[in-house]
Design goal:
By secondary structure, the chain is of the alpha+beta class. The protein is built from four helices and three strands, in the order H-E-H-H-E-E-H.
Amino acid sequence: MKTIVLANAKGGTGKTTVAVNLSACLALHHGKRVLGIDLDSQGNFGISYGVDPRQLTHTAFHLLTAEAPDVRAYIKEIKPNLHLIPNGTVNLNKICHFWIHYVEVRNIASPSNCDHFR
C-alpha cells in the first residue's frame, strides 16, 4: 500500500485539483484501489465527486473524533476502486481543540505539553 499526501498551509495551491485528478487517474485508468480522505474544511474534494457536504452524517471530522469508529461507515464509494471519506461542513480546526481536550482530560499529557497546539 502506498500513501500519497497533498498538504500545504497556503490556500489556492492546487491541492484539491491534484488530489481529484490523481485519485481518478489511479483508480479509473490504472486500476489501483484509492481511498481519498478529505481533511479540507471546504470539502471540495468530495464536492468534486458529487458529494453534498450538507447531507453527510459520517465525515472525516466525526471519524477522527469518534471513540471507536467503524471506518467502513465513513467510506463512500464513488466508482469501482475509488472511495472517499468526505469532510462535511465542519471546520477541521476544531479537531485541534478536540484533541487538546482529549489529551488533557485523560492525563496523557499535561496541559503545558499541548501549548504548541493552541
